[in-house]
């Protein structure tokens, strides 16, 4: 089992999650984070920290695609262990549907 970051992180990227992860398994894209599914120890402490409710356990329905999505980008984006300011449009975009199609960027973030 693992936890994964899902659609509502995109264009928000609050980063509260990285402060609590005991194994530093969050990776940063330009406008979202992902979790490395093989590094996550399933502790669950990050899930309630996300203001956008974007972190889900893979035991929920239809999470297989998100697990592979998180793995794909965790392998190429830099690790992030320090909280940063949310993206400027975070409040406006929080809760929008279809964010992956509308806003997702494959570009890496800065990490750190
Ligand atoms: Fe890190 Fe625990 Fe969240 Fe996994 S569930 S990403 S180990 S805080
Ligand atoms: Fe994204 Fe929530 Fe973390 S919006 S950056 S998963 S706190």
UniProtKB/TrEMBL annotation:
Composition bias of kind Basic and acidic residues appears in: 86-104
Q: Which domain of life is it from?
A: Bacteria
Q: Does the keyword Ubl conjugation apply?
A: no
User: Which cofactors does it use?
Assistant: [3Fe-4S] cluster; [4Fe-4S] cluster
Q: Where is this region: Disordered?
A: 86-112
Q: In what residue span(s) does the 4Fe-4S ferredoxin-type domain sit?
A: 1-30, 31-60
Tell me what this protein is called: Ferredoxin
Which segments cross the bilayer? none
The record's section on NCBIfam families has:
FdxA_Protbact
Entry function: Ferredoxins are iron-sulfur proteins that transfer electrons in a wide variety of metabolic reactions.
Q: Which UniProt keywords apply?
A: 3Fe-4S, 4Fe-4S, Electron transport, Iron, Iron-sulfur, Metal-binding, Repeat, Transport
Q: Which InterPro entries match?
A: 4Fe4S_Fe-S-bd, 4Fe4S_Fe_S_CS, 7Fe_ferredoxin, Fd_C, FdxA, RnfB_subfamily
Q: Which PANTHER family match?
A: FERREDOXIN, OXIDOREDUCTASE
List the Gene Ontology MF annotations in alphabetical order.
3 iron, 4 sulfur cluster binding; 4 iron, 4 sulfur cluster binding; electron transfer activity; metal ion binding
């Amino acid at each position: 089992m693992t936890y994964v970051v899902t659609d509502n992180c995109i264009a928000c990227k609050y980063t509260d999650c990285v402060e609590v992860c005991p194994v530093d398994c969050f990776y940063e894209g330009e406008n979202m984070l992902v979790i490395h599914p093989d590094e996550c120890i399933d502790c669950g402490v990050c899930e309630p920290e996300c203001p956008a409710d974007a972190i889900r356990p893979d035991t929920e329905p239809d999470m297989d695609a998100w697990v592979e999505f998180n793995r794909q980008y965790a392998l190429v984006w830099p690790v992030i262990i320090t909280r940063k300011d949310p993206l400027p449009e975070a409040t406006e975009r929080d809760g929008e549907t279809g964010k992956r199609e509308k806003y997702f960027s494959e570009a890496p973030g800065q990490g750190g």
